[in-house]
């Protein structure tokens, strides 16, 4: 008799916890991607028209 045939089923609360964790990680990755895009856009603008610092 193999252990695979008698595998325990996950409880609803565990499945809900895991789903919430996946959603949270997805949101975090989305925020990171947006931040990277914003930084890349700012770098592109900076490269097109470099800002000259006023000399003191």
Q: Could you describe the 3D structure shown?
A:
The protein has 56 residues and is mainly alpha-helical. It has a domain at 12-40. Helix content is 66%, strand content 0%. The protein contains 1 helix and no strands. The protein has one helix at residues 12-48.
Show unreliable segments: none
The count of β-strands is 0
Beta-strand percent range: under 5%
Question: What percent of residues adopt helix (DSSP H or I)?
Answer: 55-70%
Supply the number of helical segments: 1
Supply the helix-strand structural class: mainly alpha
User: Which sequence of SSEs, written as H and E, runs from N to C?
Assistant: H
Tell me the distance between the termini. Answer: 83 Å
What's the Cα radius of gyration? 24 Å
What is the overall pLDDT average? 85
Summarize the helices and strands and which ones pair or pack.
Elements lengths: L11 H37 L8
